[in-house]
Amino acid sequence: MKAFERKVLDFIDNENLLRPGQRVLVACSGGVDSVALLLFAATLRERLQIELAGIHVDHMLRGEESAEDGHFVKGICDRLEIPFFGGNVPVPAILDEQGGNVQDICRSGRYAFFSEVMKTERYDVLATAHHAEDQLETVLMQLSKGSIPTGISIKRKMNGGTVIRPFLPAMKEELLAYTREQGVRFREDPSNESDAYLRNRLRHQVAPIILAENPSAALNVVKMTTGLQEDRELLDKLAKESFDSMVTYTLDGDPAFEQDRFTDMHTALQKRFILLLLKYLYNGESIPVEYNTALLEQLHHHLSARHGNVSIDLPRGYRFVREYSNVTFVKNLENQVGPPQILPKGEWVRWGDMLLSWDDAEDCNNDGCERQYFDLPDSDLPLHVRGRKDGDRILLPGMDKPKRLSRLFIDEKIGAKRRQRLPIITTAHDEICAIPGVRYGIPFKSRKTEQEKYIFKVRKCNNLI
């Protein structure tokens, strides 16, 4: 066994990348790196006790030349006597129709095909040929963007199975030497020479300087990122345990938790906790809400702060609400408020989970209703109900000036979610006279006297007879 093969096998064993009996797809572009991986896996498949196949995707960017790459990979698979799966992603057509980033479209289309084959053909693992210098370039890219330099994952879940990178401990020159020793040719993609892409610029202009200073720099980066990924895995596990123990859910499925339990966590867990919340809200998608640093820092700031209440709009109609040490993520609060309505005399009108009615005052049995008695001139009737608006005020008993509803809600400790649903009772001239369940204005009395001609009643929907 060659020293190169032994090194890679040790890495596979140490990182638990493969198990006997697994079915493995090797992603092969036809370039030297992936051809070396295909040769390595085929040579050692009995030692690894795996079933093996090759898979190739033509992105249709170089016409007949890129189509020839697929024929070339199929030829290698035929000589190695392993199955071959080939597919196409019409990147030029997608760009013309939808626009976008070439590399992103290539990657998403490529992995979609990988996932499809893994599911339909029942393969467990996808192996890619990223090596130590690829890891160095990835770390440089992450640093340039302000991301944590964890590099390419050694092993991660993907749609359809698991993707592994067994060549991370190897240098490019080792892969080149290994392929040549096997007497196998490989293809060259001219796009790898273009400095139009950040990775290529780092590969051609930055990485050589680092490697000239220290030839072991790429291998050192692999060791560093391996440790960082192990730390990340542990922190993610602890954050998930905290998430599962802390978060409760409303009847609508909205997550909620106590702020004090959040602030008791270490900062590293807090930030991962926030990511789990966003992942839950958006069903694991990363596109609808770009989990950028600014958004995460904003949420972390408001979850850590102790003063006042706060509400933040999130993409797709979600809202973060922190009120009196309780935190919720809710959906479309603004849509839960119905349109303004007239309250016809003697009829029940539904508003959210309340039924509202007014009529001539009369003695009646205690039927579980909240009731108030009032008198208003005929010109102020009928009563109306609507949702709250900015600048709303109500004149309360014992006050000589109307009080802002925003201030009243703070004093009464009414949370943001409840504020949005409260019925605001007004006269025919849109003057606020009552907020059922909170406070009633000057015209209303809890006991009937000779002056009050009308009764106002509130009933929960589940109490309706």
UniProtKB/TrEMBL annotation:
<dbReference type="GO" id="GO:0005524">
    <property type="term" value="F:ATP binding"/>
</dbReference>
<dbReference type="InterPro" id="IPR012796">
    <property type="entry name" value="Lysidine-tRNA-synth_C"/>
</dbReference>
<keyword id="KW-0436">Ligase</keyword>
<dbReference type="Pfam" id="PF11734">
    <property type="entry name" value="TilS_C"/>
</dbReference>
<dbReference type="InterPro" id="IPR011063">
    <property type="entry name" value="TilS/TtcA_N"/>
</dbReference>
<dbReference type="GO" id="GO:0005737">
    <property type="term" value="C:cytoplasm"/>
</dbReference>
<comment type="similarity">
    <text>Belongs to the tRNA(Ile)-lysidine synthase family.</text>
</comment>
<keyword id="KW-0963">Cytoplasm</keyword>
<dbReference type="GO" id="GO:0006400">
    <property type="term" value="P:tRNA modification"/>
</dbReference>
<comment type="function">
    <text>Ligates lysine onto the cytidine present at position 34 of the AUA codon-specific tRNA(Ile) that contains the anticodon CAU, in an ATP-dependent manner. Cytidine is converted to lysidine, thus changing the amino acid specificity of the tRNA from methionine to isoleucine.</text>
</comment>
<dbReference type="Pfam" id="PF01171">
    <property type="entry name" value="ATP_bind_3"/>
</dbReference>
<feature type="binding site">
    <location>
        <begin position="29"/>
        <end position="34"/>
    </location>
    <ligand>
        <name>ATP</name>
    </ligand>
</feature>
<dbReference type="InterPro" id="IPR012094">
    <property type="entry name" value="tRNA_Ile_lys_synt"/>
</dbReference>
<feature type="domain" description="Lysidine-tRNA(Ile) synthetase C-terminal">
    <location>
        <begin position="383"/>
        <end position="456"/>
    </location>
</feature>
<keyword id="KW-0819">tRNA processing</keyword>
<dbReference type="GO" id="GO:0032267">
    <property type="term" value="F:tRNA(Ile)-lysidine synthase activity"/>
</dbReference>
<keyword id="KW-0547">Nucleotide-binding</keyword>
<protein>
    <recommendedName>
        <fullName>tRNA(Ile)-lysidine synthase</fullName>
        <ecNumber>6.3.4.19</ecNumber>
    </recommendedName>
</protein>
<keyword id="KW-0067">ATP-binding</keyword>
<dbReference type="InterPro" id="IPR014729">
    <property type="entry name" value="Rossmann-like_a/b/a_fold"/>
</dbReference>
<dbReference type="InterPro" id="IPR012795">
    <property type="entry name" value="tRNA_Ile_lys_synt_N"/>
</dbReference>
